[in-house]
Design goal:
mainly alpha; 16 helices; 67% helix; 402 residues; membrane; Bact_Transport_Assoc
Amino acid sequence: MTRGAVRQDERALAPDLARGVMLLLIVMSNTAFHLWGSRHGASGWHPVDGSRLDRAIQFLMIVTLDLRTYPLFAFLLAYGMVQLYERQLAAFAQPSTVDRRRAVALLRRRSLWLIVFGFVHAALFLAGDILGHYGFATLFLGWLLIRRGNRTLYVALGIATLLWLLPMVDVVRAFGTGDLGGSGPFTEPTVDLYAAGETDWVIAALRRLQTWTWVAGVGTFAWIAMPQLVIAFLAARHRVLENPGDHLRLLRWTAVLGIAIGWAGGLPLALAHVGAIDVPSDAVAESGVLSVLAEVTGVPCGLGYVAAFGLLAHCMSARKRLPAVAALGKRSLSGYLVHSLLFAPVLAAWGLGLGEHLGSAGMALFAVGVWLVTVVAAAAADRRGLPGPAEWLLRRLVYGRR
């Protein structure tokens, strides 16, 4: 027998606050893929044209958002896995082996349904869906690590850290020799893989699913080895975000060092993108030296963001009324899906096609507006005690009628 979903009195402010702000970071980082009318460069991420304001927005996003929000999302997802698992076991005075297996089965069921949600999301709106991606990742992690002891987790963390740092060997060699170029071919611009410029919805859906299959399937094996997932397991067992006041020194150091490393690692790619430094084109390609540097340093940056949200939650813990952003964090799945619902039909060529006429600055403004709509809607739902529709459906599928 398993217990039902989390109750309101069991929620902690820090994870919800982080999820709410994280949705803004994610929707901002996804904006470039909807600018299908702009000219994209070797990486296929941001346009290489636009006004000075557009270029400034691109610079800031490369330094602070790109490849930095997904490690944050991954951490929170893995952290929530441990919370769910331990809440299930807390229902028993002395959990048996059968109880632990049932808790793992519940996690497995949740991961499988996330994959289904991700498939539908990609088919309808967004090729870069991350629900299926993390559904596969948590399915594997739930089987491999959720019941292991801390010693096993530290060993796994060591292995994951080595795998994470392995690409830095080529980066260090390239900077040491001064040869930032390479002989590999450019990757296809990501905006084409997202099918935002396709006028036929059916063809666009098929292309989105093709991209989603690669990202959610093959791409998962690259992400399950990322250290932030194992760190999230350890942090959740020590209840770092539930009790940030007990871990202030850890949170402060993590926030300062993580964000500093992350922003410094994204700076060369941002400078190259706006033309402030001259580098070979393939240095900024998806597998180029500067892109790899930005991706690797995105992990400590994501952890730094988590720590910063923990510190912010500690400062706000005395408030009786929670911020509206935390209400969105409680409904993060719904908020994430609503972003695509408001983005794709308005911006894609098969919809109203507004993405052809916007630049990076206009798209960023549109993204903030969409996020604010979800914040207001979540706050209204919170005042009425209503869950997000996607959360309600997922809980019904995972827990049944309880």
